C-alpha cells in the first residue's frame, strides 16, 4: 500500500481509491473525476458487497468509497468488515438518501465520512483527501442530526442480544484464543457440538470468520473497562 496519507499534499504519492456502487454510470463518473486529479488513482471497482470483499485485498486502496445500499448486503456491513480486516483503509460512505439510521450505523461501523451524492465534485475530492489523511467528516446536515441523536443518549444496541447463554460463553472463549477442541474440553462438549455453536453465533453476528469474533470480544471488553 502507498504512503498516500503522509504524502498526499506533496504530490509524491497517489491516493489509491476503490469505488463501490451498483450503478456503473455512477462509478464511471466518479472514477473519471478522481482520475483527473494529479494525486489520485482509482485502483478498483465493484458493484456488489461480495465483489467488494473479494477485490479489496488485491487492490490495497487507501480509501474505499461505498454506496450505502448494495446488492447482496449493505455498504455499512461491508464497511464494518473492511475496517475489521483492513483497518488501514478509510471508508467514505456515499448515499442518495439522508438516512439517520444508516448514518448512525455507518459511524458505529468505523466509517471515516458520510456524504450525500448531491455533493459537488470538488467537495467529494476534498472529502477523499480528508479521510485519506486520517481525518473524518460528515455532510453538515447529517453531522447535526448525528450529534443530536448522541446528545439524546440513544443506547447502543447489544450486539450479542441474539446469542444464547451457551453461545455467549463460547464467544468469550474464542476471545481468549481457544480452539474448538479446547473449548469443548473446558465446557465438556463434543468438538463437533462446539463447531455447530460457533457457526451459529457467527451467523447471528453477521461475521464470516472466528478472527472477527475475537476482535468483537476485545472491543466489547475494552468498552466495559
Secondary structure topology:
Layout: H1 4-7, E1 15-20, H2 24-35, E2 40-46, H3 49-59, E3 63-67, E4 69-70, E5 73-74, H4 75-85, E6 90-95, H5 100-108, E7 113-116, H6 121-132, E8 137-138, H7 140-151, H8 165-175, H9 180-187, H10 191-204, H11 210-224
Parallel strand pairs: 1-2, 1-3, 3-6, 6-7, 7-8
Antiparallel strand pairs: 4-5
Helix pairs in contact: 3-4, 4-5, 8-10, 8-11, 9-10
Domain HTH luxR-type: 156-221
Modified residues (4-aspartylphosphate): 67
Keywords: DNA-binding, Phosphoprotein, Transcription, Transcription regulation
Order of helices and strands: HEHEHEEEHEHEHEHHHHH
Largest sheet: 6 strands, parallel
CATH architecture of the largest domain: 3-Layer(aba) Sandwich
Instruction: For the largest sheet, list the strands in their spatial order.
Output: 2-1-3-6-7-8
CATH topology of the largest domain: Rossmann fold
Determine and state the CATH class of the largest domain.
Answer: Alpha Beta
Task: Explain how this protein is built.
It contains eleven helices and eight strands. It starts with a helix and ends with a helix. The protein has 225 residues and is of the alpha/beta class. It folds into two domains: 15-152, Response regulator (Rossmann fold, 3-Layer(aba) Sandwich); 165-224, Orthogonal Bundle (Arc Repressor Mutant, subunit A), CATH 1.10.10. The model is unreliable at 1-11 (pLDDT under 50). The longest helix is centred in the C-terminal third of the chain and has 15 residues, at 210-224. A six-stranded parallel β-sheet has the order 2-1-3-6-7-8, with helices on both faces. A two-stranded antiparallel ribbon has the order 4-5. The protein has helices spanning 4-7, 24-35, 49-59, 75-85, 100-108, 121-132, 140-151, 165-175, 180-187, 191-204, 210-224, and strands at residues 15-20, 40-46, 63-67, 69-70, 73-74, 90-95, 113-116, 137-138.
Amino acid at each position: 500500500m502507498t504512503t498516500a496519507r503522509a504524502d498526499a499534499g506533496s504530490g509524491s504519492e497517489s491516493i489509491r481509491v476503490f469505488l463501490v456502487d451498483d450503478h456503473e454510470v455512477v462509478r464511471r463518473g466518479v472514477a473519471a473525476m478522481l482520475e483527473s486529479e494529479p494525486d489520485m488513482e482509482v485502483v478498483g471497482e465493484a458493484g456488489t458487497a461480495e465483489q467488494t470483499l473479494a477485490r479489496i485485498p488485491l487492490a490495497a486502496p487507501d480509501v474505499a468509497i461505498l454506496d450505502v445500499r448494495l446488492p447482496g448486503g449493505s455498504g455499512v456491513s461491508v464497511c464494518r468488515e473492511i475496517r475489521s480486516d483492513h483497518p488501514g483503509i478509510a471508508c467514505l460512505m456515499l448515499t442518495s438518501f439522508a438516512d439517520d439510521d444508516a448514518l448512525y450505523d455507518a459511524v458505529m461501523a468505523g466509517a471515516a465520512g458520510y456524504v450525500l451524492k448531491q455533493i459537488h465534485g470538488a467537495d467529494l475530492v476534498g472529502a477523499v483527501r480528508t479521510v485519506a489523511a486520517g481525518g473524518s467528516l460528515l455532510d453538515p446536515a447529517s453531522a447535526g442530526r448525528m450529534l443530536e441523536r448522541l446528545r439524546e443518549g440513544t443506547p447502543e444496541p447489544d450486539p450479542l442480544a441474539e446469542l444464547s447463554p451457551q453461545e455467549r460463553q463460547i464467544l468469550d472463549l474464542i476471545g481468549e484464543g481457544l480452539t474448538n477442541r479446547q473449548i469443548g474440553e473446558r465446557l465438556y462438549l463434543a468438538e463437533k457440538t462446539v463447531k455447530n455453536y460457533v457457526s451459529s453465533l457467527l451467523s447471528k453476528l453477521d461475521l464470516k470468520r472466528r478472527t472477527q469474533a475475537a476482535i468483537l470480544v476485545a472491543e466489547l471488553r475494552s468498552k466495559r473497562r
